[in-house]
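Fig. S4 source data, part A: sequence.
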Amino acid sequence: MSDRASQGIYEDTPGQAIVSLLTQYLRSAWQKEYAVVPDEQDVIEKTLKAMADERGCCLIITCGGTGPALRDVTPEATEAVCYKMLPGFGELMRAKSLTYVPTAILSRQTAGIRNKTLIVNLPGKPKAIGQCLEVIFPAIPYCIDLLGGPFIECNEEVMKPFRPKAD
């Protein structure tokens, strides 16, 4: 989510960082749906709905728009389209980020569920994206399992997902 990147003023390096990390993490075949949208809540909501409902994405990862600035509305858009919120994702990302910068308390990353889609909001800086995605990703494949989505296999040399052992 970026006004300037959506206008082509600069390259969307945060979004590219997410794609790069997913390419490293995932062994399963996957297809990316990529969009760069302005910091406008209605546009963000429409994009999230289209990706979840029309394109059938099981996972949507956003970046940017999670700070305290007036135009940072990604969490509000996510909450507006989700039926369930998963605050643990944001709590873990902030806890991890606090080991690097004291301003992590200003972060408003969150995650939620819309039907069979997990939506996760990451910060907008590539370095912070890597730090946050690394700590939350182990739970993502199992969450998608619970939502009835595809079984996601990871490159376990890079990213080991957690799935509870059957009793």
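Fig. S4 source data, part B ends here. The longest strand covers residues 117-122.
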